[in-house]
Design goal:
Helix Hairpins; HAMP_dom; 2 domains; transducer; single chain; Four Helix Bundle (Hemerythrin (Met), subunit A)
Length: 542
């Protein structure tokens, strides 16, 4: 297990070098063993052949020496001349000595050989007989020499037979040794073949081990990749080794964990976007409906109050015209001063009542503008909340990365819509502030006119007691009436401008409703996109 772990942690470059070195060293070892064995066998064969050849040569030499001695013996017998006989005897003795020397060498080579011992014994018997033959030949006693030679012939035949047997034995022994050496060569070849077979078997085992080291993690990696391609992110990759395959498996494991984390973040972001879309939709629906209803109600009230104010203004103008005619008539006819003053006082009282009504109407109008301001503040607050929700949605979309790019666009549109709504709310607030300011000015002028009316009534009362200054008082009343007429005209102009502001408010209300509908559509699109993203995420097994 430890060796397997160490091999698994090696890089494939080192593994390849290690296995190549193993094969190369194995082949070198087999080659060296085979070469040494063949070299040793060749040396053994050469030494055996040399020894066998030497023994055969010695045996053959002994045969030759024996033949030479027999030839010399025959020559000694055949010669007649003493000198020739002497030379022939010398040759025969020399041949006998050489034969003896040859058999001694043969005995040294074939020490312990029974036939060599027999050959030695035969040679010892031949020596005296040969000397007797030489003696007889030197005496020219051919008959005795021939007789002695005949007696030696059995010994010579025996010696020759032993020599031939020794030669044949040595040749047979050499053939046996050659057969043994050939068998050893075959055994060596068989041993080398077995060694090569074992090395090949070991190589196959190592190759299978290496192939298992390669294919096992690759099959696991392939199965994991197929499972991941089908959306299963729960698969676990085991990268135990530190080689290239193990590092690849570790990198795939990190990629799987990162992909799992990314898909989980996308799922959470989609859920948050969906929740925020629902909140935006509910907020837009509630805000749009409430704002439209309240703004429409306020616009109707303002329009009603402005129409009432205009009607009362017309009535006041009519009363002022009547009062002016009365003053003119009283100026022409001082006899009717008392009755005209009474009519004027009655008209001023009616005017005072109408002015009170106008003041109440302007107060209602001021309250309506205050409510409109409250509504615009609510719109601005809702726009701010919508902008904040859109910003949150944009942040979540940015976290989602490439998958949240569509949500980022939708969030930008929602934020632009909220900014536009807030801008329209500011314009409404600005218009309402202007209307409120005009209403306050109108109210102040109406209070001033009412105060002047009260003053005029007091003056008219003084006219009753001070008839002498009636003309002057009537002129003053005429002037006051003219001022009142101017004030009423200004009030009518203000009311007309307020009516224009109300129409602008109504237009803004319609625009706000359209913006709210657009916001609801955008929120619905975000909900659809979030649902689509959740469906995509559901294809993965987390």
């Amino acid at each position: 297990m430890g060796i397997k772990r160490i091999i698994a942690d090696l890089g494939w470059k080192k593994k390849t070098l290690l296995f190549s070195s193993f094969f190369i060293l194995g082949m070198i070892a087999v080659g060296l063993v085979g070469s040494y064995t063949i070299f040793t066998q060749n040396n053994t064969i050469q030494q055996t052949l040399k020894a066998s050849e030497y023994r055969v040569d010695q045996a053959v030499g002994s045969q030759l020496m024996l033949l030479e001695m027999m030839r010399s013996q025959a020559q000694v017998i055949a010669e007649v001349n003493k000198k020739e006989i002497r030379f022939a005897a010398k040759d025969a003795l020399r041949s006998l000595s050489l034969l003896d020397e040859s058999f001694q060498n043969l005995q040294a080579v074939l020490e312990g050989n029974r036939k060599v011992e027999q050959l030695r014994e035969s040679l010892e018997q031949v020596r005296p007989a040969l000397i007797e033959v030489i003696k007889a030949a030197r005496k020219n006693d051919d008959a005795s020499a021939i007789e002695q030679s005949k007696e030696m012939s059995s010994l010579m035949e025996r010696i020759e037979g032993l020599s031939a047997e020794i030669v044949q034995d040595e040749r047979d022994d050499m053939a046996v040794k050659l057969a043994e050496l050939q068998q050893k060569g075959r055994d060596t070849i068989m041993m080398l073949a077995v060694g090569i077979g074992l090395f090949v078997l070991l190589s196959l085992i190592v190759s299978l081990f290496v192939a298992t080291q390669v294919t096992t993690p690759l099959k696991r990696l392939q199965a994991s990749m197929l499972a991941m391609s089908e959306g299963d992110l729960q698969v676990k990759l085991l990268g135990e080794s530190k080689d290239e395959i193990g590092l690849t498996v570790s990198a795939m494991l990190k990629m799987s964990e990162k992909l799992h984390e990314t898909i989980s973040q996308i799922e959470r972001a989609a859920n948050r976007v969906s929740d925020e879309s629902v909140s935006i939709n509910q907020t837009a629906e509630g805000c749009g409906q409430a704002m439209a209803e309240r703004l429409s109600e306020c616009v109707e009230r303002v329009r009603e109050h402005s129409e009432n104010a205009i009607n009362h203004s017309d009535l006041v103008v009519e009363h002022i015209s009547q009062a002016e005619e009365a003053v003119t008539s009283s100026a022409k006819t001082s006899q009717h001063v008392s009755s005209l003053v009474s009519d004027t006082m009655s008209g001023f009282e009616t005017f005072q009542d109408d002015m009170r009504d106008v003041v109440q109407m302007t107060a209602h109008l001021s309250q309506a503008t205050t409510k409109i301001s409250t509504i615009t503040e609510s719109i601005q607050r809702i726009s701010g909340q919508t902008n904040l929700l859109a910003l949150n949605a944009a942040i979540e979309a940015a976290r989602a990365g490439e998958h949240g790019r569509g949500f980022a666009v939708v969030a930008d549109e929602v934020r632009n819509l909220a900014n536009d709504t807030e801008e329209f709310a500011r314009e409404i607030a600005s218009l309402v502030d202007g209307v409120s300011s005009n209403v306050e000015q109108t109210n102040k002028k109406l209070l001033s006119v009412e105060q002047e009316a009260l003053t005029n009534i007091s003056s008219l009362q003084e006219v009753v007691t001070q008839t002498e200054s009636s003309h002057t008082q009537i002129s003053s009343v005429n002037t006051t009436m003219q001022q009142m007429f101017d004030v009423i005209n200004q009030q009518r102009a203000v009311l007309n401008g307020f009516d224009d502001s109300v129409q602008q408010l109504e237009s803004l209300s319609v625009d706000g409703k359209q913006q709210t509908e657009s916001l609801r559509s955008t929120a619905s699109a975000m909900m659809s996109a979030a649902e689509e993203l959740r469906n995509i995420v559901r294809t993965f097994k987390l």
